[in-house]
């Protein structure tokens, strides 16, 4: 994978984090800003990252919304899918099942899962259909979405911080 991918994701994570710092600093009392900023970064980066619990497990719940705000969830998806492209010729089946388990690239939505431990005929057929046509190049929109979400969240937090500073009553 090109170093520019890592650099872009790192830059976007810094953009998200600094936007969060602006928002925390604009909305909380000065005595609590430092600790609150650390807690927000820790919670959104370490606890709501999309691997445990997975993106697939969080679909359709409040956890999906919370994961949608996490920088690490989007950074993980962008980097993982970018890396998968290099291994798809040799490890396609393994990567498809990993993507299904985590919920990357919408694979968990594309495959049938009846909830049983044993593989049913419907599950096997849906996997074979997906395997025939699926490439990780088709995940490029998910990578682009991850970049845009990271940028948008950083920008959105900056705008909310600006509005809080602009229109909040000031103590003199």
TrEMBL record:
Keywords from the UniProt entry: Membrane, Transmembrane, Transmembrane helix
Domain of life per record: Eukaryota
TM annotation in the entry: 6-25, 94-112, 146-168
Protein name: Uncharacterized protein
Origin species: Haematococcus lacustris
